[in-house]
Design goal:
The complex is a heterodimer of chains A (about 900) and B (about 575). By secondary structure, chain A is α+β, with helices and mostly antiparallel strands. Chain A contains 16 helices and 46 strands. Among the domains of chain A are: about 110 residues, Immunoglobulin-like; about 120 residues; about 150 residues, no CATH class; about 210 residues, no CATH class. In chain A, helix 2 packs antiparallel against helix 4 and helix 10 runs antiparallel to helix 13. The longest helix of chain A has about 40 residues. Chain B has a domain of about 200 residues. In chain B, about 25% of the residues lie in helices and about 30% in strands. In chain B, helix 3 runs antiparallel to helix 4. Chain B is rod-shaped and about 130 Å long. The chains are: A alpha+beta (about 900), B alpha+beta (about 575).
Amino acid sequence: MSLAIDPSQQISKADKVKVDFYSELMNNYFPESSIEAGEDIQSLMVAPERPLLFCLDKDGKLQGILRTEGSESGWIKLELSTGKVASFEIEYDSEEESFRIAKVEDNKVWISREMKLARTNFERLERRIKWDSWSPATAGEVINKVSLGTEHALYATKEAEKDALYYLIDLQSDEQKPYTLPENAVEIRQFELGNFQNTNGLFLLYDMAGKTHMLYQSFPIPQFPKQTTKARLKSGEPMNCFALLEGEDGQDMLYVAGEKVYEFVGHADGRGFHLNEVPTVPGGEIRKIKAAGHGAERSIWSLNDKGLHYCTNRFFNQETAAFETGPWTEPLVMAKNADQFSCLKGPNVQNQVFSLSTRFGSELTRLWQDSVTTLWNTHKLSVHAADSLKTVESYSAHIRFSTQTRLRTFHGLKVKLKAESNLFVYVDSKSYHIGPDHEVEVELSMVPEFTVICPVRDIASSRLILGADFLDGEIAINLTDKVLERLEEQAPSGDALADALLPDGSHLVAEGTDPKMLKEAAKGIQGLVSAAKDLRSESTANFKRTEFSAVGGGVGITTTAPLAQGGHTLGDFLHSAWDGVKKAFSFVIEKIKEGFKFIIKIGEQIFNWIVKTLHEIGSFIQKVFEAIAVAFKDLFEFLAFLFDWQSILDTKDAFKEYTNAAIESLRDGVADIRTFLDKELSKAIDNFSPELNNLPSGISNLDVGEGDENEGDADPRSSWLNSKKDSIQNSKEGKISTMPTEFSDVFARFISDAEPIFAQLGEGFMQQISMIGDAFQSVVQGKMTFGDFLKMLAQKLAGFALFLVKQLIDLLLSSLIALIEVAKVGLNQEWKIPIISSIYRDITGSELTFLDVTCLFIAIPTNIMYKIGEGEAPFGDDKTKQEFVKSGRQVFQLNIA
Amino acid sequence: MTGNQTLAHYDMVLGLSQNTINYQFHQLHRGRVIHRDWAVLMGNVNNRGKKGDPFALLRTAENESAFNDKIDLWVDLQEQIADAFEDQDFGEIGTLTGQLKAANADFDLGWDASIKAPTINILDQNTQSLILNIAFRSGRLLYRTNSLTEVTEFDLKNCVYAFEVPIGKLQITKDRMVLKAQEEMDTVIRESGLSDDDFTIESLFLNFENANIISFDPGRSNFPEEAALPLQVSVKNYFDQTLAGSDNPYVLGYGVSRRKISSSEPAMFQPTSLNFSTSYSSQMDPETPVPGEFSAFNFLMMLNNRVPPYDQNTGVLPHSLIESGKDTSSTMDGVFAIQKDHFQTYIHSLDEFVTAQFEAQGVERNGGFKDGVMVGLKHDKHKVNDTIDSTYTITRESIQNNAHDSGISVRYKIEVRIRVGVHIGKDWEIHHATLSTAGQHTKGDIDKVGSVGYLDFQVKAAQEGQFSLEHEFTAPNIAFDKSPNLFEGDAGTVFLNVMLTIFGGVIQIIRGIVNAIAVDLGKDSAIAGNELVATLADLDVLNQTNKVILPLGKIYTFKNLRHIPDKDIIAYDIAYAPVMETENAAS
């Protein structure tokens, strides 16, 4: 695709490029499937901003999910086992910057050789990985768990009626040695290599007599080959899982979780410990716990029925607006319904987790906190899947460049795209991470436009920043403009909120909600919207000090836990799930120099935060809606642009019938051409040229290479399907096979029949043929209608005819006729193409044909723009449609005789 | 061999590996629980009594630099004094001695050394003593023969100071363990019984420290010949004078504090006295031979305030118990054994448990188990006058190790016999029939021939001295002893109906027992050790799973409960694995 373009032929600053953009909140669809992950997930940052996730798929096989910028979903899947994996673990060696994977497959332990992060080709990990395997001493032992350290690996076995054992593998010598437990343990639940009481050993959690017990056991040292240090550790409550964190003195700190989480801080002489309770959100047994540390800072992630919680000793003191290391923050629910999670390991990684929920289909989310703004970023993961369709609520921005000077091209020029806060976006169907420090270069093609789709979970989003050498400066694109405008219009007052209806006719706000409450909410929303306007325009023109409260009527904000003195940052507050005890809240927003000061009162607690970005304001608006019990799903329906599929389909059908009629007429036309050529060839062979023939007007001027330059303004709604064309091009099946076989057969036969003739004709002819191929791709990609393609084909073939021997003409014409013969059948046959077939099936319930696709490409923008312009759909009345279809019949009527 | 012989007349013995003790000392030393540095200066120990009381200066973290200066000053002045003495300059000697006294530096000896981890050796042919070795990593001994000589310095590097510790003379008394002369037999048992603390390595170490005062063993020590005498004098004085009566009662002077172990529940087998002995073993694991790995330090225990045996062979076990270990890997640290006769206490409690289950179902205990058999009776009436008399015969059949020697299986056989009498009026029995687990005749709903039932328990060691008790129930089947078809006609039909009703009742009882067992096994309950038998008798339903059976559960883990028939003991593999206590709870 990237042909070298002469820079002098490219657009520059001198061309005064105009940038049109438009952002809309709407649904989008991607050929993706959710990641089906089983029991456990683990993750590793293999390169800057490139996480690799390991999990078991629904068949229990080990898979890797690798972040790949610019791929379809942004994530590619790697298969790391052929069979079911009982347990696995990833170990990252921070000194060597290397990693290993251990898995239990086929009742053997497999451990990969050490791989350096910097030297590993992760896309090819499946093939590059080298495994060594170990088996337990006796056949009856079943391996149930594996754990990895940098120098050793461990695996546990169990056997009916016998005690659990564990094996220590020395990764240097590859030797393994079995170890017993000091008690008649049935099964080892969890074990981790660690340090305790100045020894190296392992912490074990095992089942015995119906209870779970925690033990530390060291490995023998050379002076004492038969002795070990053992200590039983008790928190006084049932224990379910644990996590280790290397302390600053090299000894491990232990976090043990049952219904509560306890931190074991060893006494200096190693013979006792102090037990600190780490705050948790009550919600039954904690199923998994992870601890992360950075110097004296520690974070605890734990999972129970209430979801995934987070708690840190990086305590934000609101009075001093500074962090303190010491007290634990109150825990916040970071992901509701989470079933599994993994804290990301790797160089320079802090506070990043993946959370998996299977309650409503498998959903894998990446969650990380910006260390500066404290804002939490979320990103749902999915993998590319041609036969699957995923609906994504998103801001979609269509961006188009244009200039008055048409002599030069945008082709090959690059546009840099970044964002004010971290976003995972799709740029023309490819996934990228953009943010203040993350930039993506978009290469423009002949058609200088692209679509950015930014999936969202609330109405907040930050600005996109565009830069290019041909632009004078950076251009900011507010994704939320349209939505804020709509909010301003549609929620000006409490009454308006009370009356607001969703497209299905139901109320946005539950009927009976206290009018006083709605009045306050509307006041708050308007205040926030005007604050947003000011942030956007960097003025203070719109904003007036706003004060509002959501009280009365029993409807108020609901928070998880006492938040005040909870040590939370603004980011924590905005991200946390607000459920639990209902409490009234009120806001005061004041303009200050650095931005806006938000004073929030929840119950008796007062919070102060300084807000600087649109993203934050959007999040606050979302919170106001949450306070009046409006979920994002409803808010989305209320504010988003929804496609009127019925009229789009009507338009498409009109185009489809028109094309079918046109093909009919072309058949007659070709017959005429053939008759003409047969009769006149011998005498006119020397002076035939297309101009002498009454081919339909415009055919001669048809330029296949360039797209239609005559577009309207940028609009993600009309270019909606365009943004999906890449899915077709990039589909793995290859280009030509996406063509219905009827057509490809004709081409294939033509090529094989024509081969001996081509041999005589040389290069020029081949080029023409390849142009025909390209033109057909244009049809496939919706850049050209099928009608136009046929016109072009006729012209090329006819033009050639005069310079060729008669047998070739016969061949060409018979091929053309054959093509037309099959056209009607082929065009109306079902055509399975990625994403679009699925969307179509979702919308219409029927299967997509080749003709449907090409017509849809035209119908969607036509319909939407027509409706926006004319206020009604085209082909609203049947008569107009009939006339349009009829006109198709005249398209190819030749007048040669 | 009887259990009494195996355990040398003690009720229970815990044999802890010599190498484990050494390893634990090593760890205490490594973790600086045992202090590594010894430094002291002592005065008035030569010609004691003439010039005043002995005094000492110990180096501490606070006085370290002053202490070191003082050594230098002493050595320097002493050298000058020696020179002056050589010159016979008594005026100078007077001045210098005055300076020495003024500086409080008039010492006779001192040392400044760093020690290696202490070790013990268990001796062959001597079950009553062991050798405690204090080896010096580095350091020096400073000594003046008299006040006019210069200070002689000996390099202590690689020197070993060996003590013979007469552990056979150690006994637990009311307050703490002290050395007792053999003739003093007034063993005072602590009112609270022995605590788990008494079985920690720290306690052991403290005991050894106490024991070594008089037992320096020059034969096993390693010193340069010329240093031996001054060192002996130093040590003796150090122990005799410096520390005796001080706040720190331990002769080696190192404040090993005892591990804080919260007392566990009194166990069923709570020891009431504690003595010590050793068992030397030359045995070694052929694959990974380590000398001394089977040599044991024995904790000898008696139950129920029984007086410990005392004779020539007290505590002399025929073999080190560790030789009977099942798991001899690095995980384990020794073996704990109880005479099988005493273990019967537990079996009796299990009998009582089974009895109680039947009793709860209305079966009269009829004296409970006698010689492993209980015959329980139940009398019921049907429709006022019909009698139903059931006999439940429960026989404890066997006590044997499970397939992997990791637990003990106990089987109770259940036989049932029912006599049914159909009456007209109170006294006129018109028919009777018997059904039993031996019955071979079926009819109607009674469609299976009789078979005995079984209640199988598997007893395993569980957490902190508790046992886990898994049970399996094989329901008995009851059928007619004679063909019920003999009863024909109306009377027969009536009778059969009565039978069926009754049979339903039996099923209820059996089901009830099964359910009750399942429920009870999940409950918490505890019993006091000292009033064991009485408590057992009083308990309606004895919970067997959450009660502490074995002592020392906070210090040692127990596993592989097994019967060793030829030694007549019940043995366990043990590991030294103290329960780490939180400081929060302790405070």
